[in-house]
Inverse folding.
């Protein structure tokens, strides 16, 4: 299908798709077909709004007022998780290909998206615990613990804990396969280590790598690009840590010390994950400077 407006579509508009004049408030646009240009695409069809906007299906009946917000927030998260995986994969590939500027560019985007994910917790916190309790029980045994994309992101960022695959209940076969593949596939850290050794620094062992990172940090004239890349990775790591901390404070505000719908101890389990670092060596480096 051509993207150029064809003579046919300009003159004889396909039925129901476009008209000879569109009224944009005070301006009437004629003959230009602004925004349609004879193509068959519309805003709604391009963005698959029919599917997207019919995917908010409440469990509560009669509908609990806040359940739509709860679903919307989670769906928005999953869309951003998909985008984050896209960027993280491309950044990993870029580091293996020696395109460090591109990896850094993408990682900066990752951190900005993660900032949005942290800040949007405040939207869900406008829900009171009483209003959550109207539909909370209906959610059990589902939980954010079962978000395959969240775990994929952890794996791709270097936190590869294979026990998570087994501990998940209710993952689809496809999700399990994706996670298993992620366990094997190189992640961000592998890409970074490759970049370090490609620049002539030794990276065979953890000790060598740490020593090389000290060299990088102390000679930014020479290793500026690697240094900035390491900082971009740390931004991602820090943003993930901030999200975990923000999530657990919200959880305590919503359910106190109750156990989780996913079967964990709830806040205590989440607190046990707060010390997680994707790139521990980049944090250790601080003590070695
Ligand atoms: C009222 C709001 C929320 C509450 C009370 C809540 C509560 C919990 C609890 C108790 C857990 C531990 C697992 C379990 O259920 O036993 C958990 C895990 C999790 N939640 Fe939430 N959550 C909320 C909102 C969200 C949102 C908006 C997201 C965004 C995707 C999210 C993502 C996750 C993830 C990814 C985990 C697994 C964390 C890990 O294993 O480290 N949660 N949540
Ligand atoms: N685990 C939460 C319920 C919850 O927040 C949730 C339930 C289903 C799907 C996603 C959820 N979000 C994060 O855990 C709770 O125990 O209240």
């Amino acid at each position: 299908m051509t993207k150029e407006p064809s003579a046919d579509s300009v003159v004889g508009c396909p039925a129901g798709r476009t008209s000879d004049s569109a009224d944009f408030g005070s301006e009437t646009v004629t003959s230009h077909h602004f925004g349609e240009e004879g193509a068959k695409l519309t805003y709604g069809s391009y963005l698959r709004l029919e599917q997207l906007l019919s995917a908010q299906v409440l469990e509560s009946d009669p509908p609990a007022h806040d359940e739509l917000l709860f679903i919307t927030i989670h769906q928005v998260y999953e869309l951003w998780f998909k985008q984050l995986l896209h960027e993280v994969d491309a950044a990993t590939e870029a580091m293996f290909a020696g395109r460090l500027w591109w990896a850094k560019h993408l990682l900066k985007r990752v951190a900005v998206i993660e900032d949005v994910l942290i800040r949007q917790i405040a939207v869900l916190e406008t829900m009171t615990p009483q209003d959550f309790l109207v539909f909370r029980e209906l959610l059990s045994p589902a939980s954010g613990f079962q978000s395959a994309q969240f775990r994929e992101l952890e794996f791709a960022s270097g936190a590869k804990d294979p026990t998570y695959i087994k501990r998940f209940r209710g993952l689809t076969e496809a999700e399990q396969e994706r996670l298993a593949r992620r366990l094997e596939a190189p992640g961000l850290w592998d890409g970074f280590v490759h970049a370090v050794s490609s620049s002539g620094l030794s990276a065979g062992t953890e000790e060598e790598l740490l020593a090389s990172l000290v060299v990088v940090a102390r000679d930014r004239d020479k290793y500026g690009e690697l240094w900035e890349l390491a900082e971009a990775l740390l931004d991602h790591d820090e943003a993930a840590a901030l999200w975990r901390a923000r999530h657990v404070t919200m959880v305590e505000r919503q359910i106190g010390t109750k156990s989780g719908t996913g079967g964990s101890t709830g806040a205590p389990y989440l607190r046990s994950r707060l010390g997680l670092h994707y790139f521990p060596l980049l944090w250790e480096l601080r003590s070695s400077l």
